[in-house]
Design the sequence.
C-alpha cells in the first residue's frame, strides 16, 4: 500500500496526505478526516524511513566504540540494540579503531543519527563538546562527564579493593596489576582500588605491568614477567588479559592457583568456563540503560543530564585458591 493509493481513495493530493500524516502544515479538517478514513480503510502504515526523512529525523541511534572485537563490546552492543529496537529505533555503529582522524569521523557520523552513545575515551573532550554544541543528545559510557552529556559507568574502585582483600585473606602478599591504567578511566579506577586494598593491610603496591586489554597482550606481558619475577597473584584489568595470563602461566610450568593466583574483570562467558575469579559487571544492562537514556533525551522526556553508576560484584572461583 502506498501514499498514492491513500491520496486516490481520499480524493486529495499526495502533499495533503503527507502533511496530514506528519501532523504539520495547512490541512483542512475535512481533508484530514478524509485522509484518516482512507488510511483506516486501506490499512496503510507509513514507512518509518519515510516518516523520519519527512520530519528531518533519522529514527537511528549511533554508538561509537573503540573496537568491535572482544566479548565486552559484544555484550554491551547486544543490550543496546535490544532496547533501541524495542523503542523503535535502529542502530548505527562506528568503530574508532585504526582511524587517522577520530574527531572528524565521529562528527560526520553524528550528522547521520538522532543521538549518540560514546564508549570509552578514544573520542576526545573537544569532539564531544562539538557534538553537544550541535544539540545532539549524547550519553557517555565508561568515561567521566563532559559538559551536559549523560554518563553511565560501572563501579570499579570498591570491587577492586574487595578483590584485593580477598586475595590477601588467602595469604597472598605480592600482588601485581596487569593492564595499563593510562588506557582507560575504568582501568585506572581498578588499579586505584587494588592500591587501596593493599595499603589497608600495610602492603606495597608495585607499578602495573602495562599491556593492551587483549588476551594476546596479557599472555605476552605475563610470560615476560614470569621469567624474572614470581608474584603471588596477578590482578588483571579484564578477563581477556586474565585468560592470556592463564596461558602464560601454563607455558612456563606454573600451576594456577597453587603457584600463582589469577583474577580478571567483566565475567565474560570464557571466565565462567575456566573457573576464573573475576568481577562481574552488568555489560548488557550497561548497553540497555544507555539506549533507554538516549531515547529519553531524544524524545524530550528528560532534558537534564543524569549520571548513573551501576554496581559490580566480585565472583570468587578456583583461580584465586581454595575456599
Sequence:
Amino acid at each position: 500500500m502506498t501514499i498514492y493509493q491513500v491520496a486516490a481513495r481520499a480524493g486529495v493530493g499526495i502533499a495533503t496526505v503527507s502533511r496530514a500524516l506528519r501532523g504539520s502544515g495547512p490541512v483542512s479538517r475535512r481533508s484530514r478526516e478524509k485522509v484518516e478514513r482512507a488510511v483506516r480503510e486501506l490499512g496503510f502504515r507509513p514507512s518509518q524511513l519515510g516518516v523520519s526523512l519527512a520530519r528531518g529525523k533519522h529514527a537511528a541511534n549511533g554508538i561509537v566504540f573503540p573496537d568491535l572485537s572482544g566479548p565486552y563490546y559484544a555484550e554491551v552492543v547486544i543490550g543496546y540494540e535490544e532496547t533501541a529496537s524495542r523503542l523503535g529505533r535502529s542502530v548505527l555503529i562506528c568503530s574508532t579503531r585504526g582511524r587517522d582522524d577520530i574527531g572528524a569521523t565521529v562528527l560526520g557520523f553524528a550528522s547521520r543519527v538522532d543521538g549518540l552513545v560514546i564508549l570509552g575515551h578514544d573520542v576526545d573532550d573537544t569532539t564531544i563538546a562539538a557534538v553537544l554544541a550541535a544539540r545532539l543528545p549524547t550519553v557517555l559510557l565508561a568515561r567521566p562527564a563532559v559538559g551536559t552529556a549523560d554518563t553511565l559507568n560501572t563501579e570499579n574502585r570498591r570491587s577492586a579493593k574487595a578483590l584485593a582483600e580477598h586475595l590477601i585473606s588467602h595469604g597472598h602478599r605480592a600482588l601485581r596489576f596487569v593492564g595499563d591504567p593510562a588506557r582507560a578511566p575504568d582501568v585506572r579506577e581498578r588499579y586505584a582500588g587494588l592500591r587501596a586494598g593493599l595499603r589497608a593491610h600495610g602492603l606495597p603496591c608495585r607499578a602495573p605491568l602495562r599491556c593492551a586489554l587483549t588476551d594476546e597482550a596479557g599472555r605476552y606481558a605475563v610470560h615476560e614477567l614470569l621469567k624474572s619475577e614470581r608474584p603471588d597473584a596477578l590482578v588483571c584489568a579484564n578477563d581477556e588479559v586474565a585468560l592470556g595470563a592463564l596461558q602464560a602461566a601454563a607455558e612456563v610450568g606454573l600451576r594456577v592457583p597453587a603457584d600463582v593466583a589469577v583474577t580478571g574483570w567483566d565475567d565474560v562467558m570464557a571466565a565462567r568456563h575456566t573457573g576464573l575469579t573475576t568481577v562481574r559487571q552488568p555489560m548488557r544492562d550497561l548497553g540497555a540503560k544507555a539506549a533507554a537514556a538516549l531515547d529519553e533525551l531524544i524524545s524530550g522526556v528528560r532534558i537534564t543530564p543524569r549520571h548513573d553508576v551501576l554496581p559490580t560484584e566480585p565472583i570468587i572461583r578456583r583461580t584465586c585458591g581454595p575456599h
